[in-house]
Amino acid sequence: MLIYLRVLKESFNFAINALKNNKLRTFLSLLGVTIGIFSIIGVLAAVDSLEKEIKGSLSALDNSTIIVMRFSFGPTEVPQWKRQQFPDVSYDEYQYLSRNLPNTQAVSYSIGVPNESIKYQDVTSTGVGVGAVTSEYYDIESLDLAEGRFFNEAESVSGSPVIVLGHEIAQNLFDGFDAMGKQVRIYGRKLTVIGVLEKQGSSLFGNSKDGQVFLPANLARRVYGDNNQGVFPQLVLKPEEDVDNAEYIAVLEQYLRNYRGIKPGDINNFFVNQLQGFADFIDNITGQLNLIGLIISGFSLLVGGFGIANIMFVSVKERTNLIGIQKSLGAKNKFILFQFLFEAIILAIIGGLVGLALVWLVAQAASQFTGDFDFVLSPWNMFIGTAVSGIIGLISGIIPAISASKLDPVEAIRTGM
Q1: pLDDT band for position 346 (cuts 50, 70, 90)
Q2: Which of 292-331 are b and which e, b meaning 16 or more Cβ less than 10 Å from the residue's Cβ?
Q3: How far apart are CA 199 and CA 145, in angstroms?
Q4: Which DSSP letter does residue 118 get?
Q5: Which residues form a coiled coil (predicted)?
Q6: What's the rounded Cα separation, in Å, for the pair 312 and 295?
Q7: Which domain-ending residue is among 233, 251, 266?
């Protein structure tokens, strides 16, 4: 064991000497490994960061959440002309499913309405996202209140003139002053502020909750009506825990088909969208991005491997005399082999560590310029970078190391003189 540690120490010293004595040659040879590791870990870090941001944006809703509407989240075999004839989900259907659908934790009716301006005295916030929902939405989505409360069932059913503000909207309108109980104007009506949401931060998908307000869906129904093509009603359902999603969706579809009077054999005139399906779609996309990035980066590593092999062949030639002396003094073939093999691995790891350092610097700079979007350089990715570097060094150094170990000591000394 001690002899291998000594070999490792000597190999490390030889690698450092190679860097010191032949700076330009070693730099150019290691550049391929550095670029390759930078590319691979850069791709992994970028995809991990994108995946984290997407899932963070979706984390407010549980993956088991189901959304029923006349649009599909993904590709569908239903032709466009037929989809255009689908009716919107209705408030009556929401009430029907709330009363009758089994194994359901909560059902909410939500209306997608255009952005609006909201005013308090002489201060106006424009382009505000409006969440017109029923009271159950609070139980389905993770809404954290900084102060106040969400509207209750009675206020939801009656369409009371109440409103819950996002953090940014409250800051814009009230400039840090207490918003509770104040009246703001929207849709030409005065609504009383009953709650303010905790600050959420930016979201990858459009506005975050910070730039939104929530008000009762029945209030929005009075403003827009039930047959307005400019709004998009939807049902948001959360099944009870430990319920089989496939069975739950089958029961949900049957209840809605019965309510709408859809005949057996006819297709559904609505779409049941699952957030889990969307999350799986995101996983598939990020997996493909990783694969493409790894294939492209592999070419850089291939060039880097040739660079390491070139260093080692030159190193063997330069130290032929020393190899002959070591073997004449009793050094075994495996001692010589490990000496050069460790040297190749150490050189490759040095190149890989430089690549990792560059990724870290770029990630830090990118995080500063992109605000709330954080680039992730995980310990696992750092381990992958180091391991890949070592493997490249092992593969690239094996042939030069074998050739060095098989040198005849007499010929090696004569050649090196």
Answers
A1: confident
A2: ebeeebeebbeebbebbbbbbbbbbeebbeebbebbeeeb
A3: 9
A4: E
A5: none
A6: 26
A7: 233
Q: Are residues 409 and 312 in the same domain?
A: yes
Instruction: Count the domains in the chain.
Output: 2
| 356 within some domain | yes
Domain that holds residue 40: 2-57+281-416
Structure tokens at 275: 């957030």
Return the residue matching tokens 């909560």. Answer: 106
Alpha-carbon distance values, 172 to 45, 115, 118, 143, 168 (Å)? 35, 16, 10, 20, 6
The CB density around residue 47, as the number of other CB atoms within 10 Å, is 21
Residue 219: the pLDDT is: 94
Question: Are 120 and 20 part of one and the same domain?
Answer: no
Asked whether 367 and 373 are in contact (CB, 8 A), the reply is yes
User: Based on the domain organization, do 290 and 410 belong to the same domain?
Assistant: yes
Amino acid of residue 181? G
Helices (H), 59-133: 80-83, 91-100
User: In angstroms, rounded to a whole number, what is the distance separating the alpha carbons of residues 375 and 179?
Assistant: 35
Collapsing DSSP to helix, strand or coil, 142 comes out as coil
**Coil vs helix vs strand at 412:** helix
Q: Is residue 411 part of a domain?
A: yes
- Whether 243 is in a domain gets the answer no
Q: Tell me, rounded to whole angstroms, the distance of Cα 25 from its chain centroid.
A: 39
DSSP notation for 290-335 = HHHHHHHHHHHHHHHHHHHHHHHHHHHHHTHHHHHHHHHTT--HHH
Find the helix or strand (DSSP H, E) in which 62 lies.
Answer: none
Q: What is the pLDDT of residues 225-272, one digit of tens each?
A: 888 888 889 999 999 888 888 899 999 999 999 999 989 888 988 988
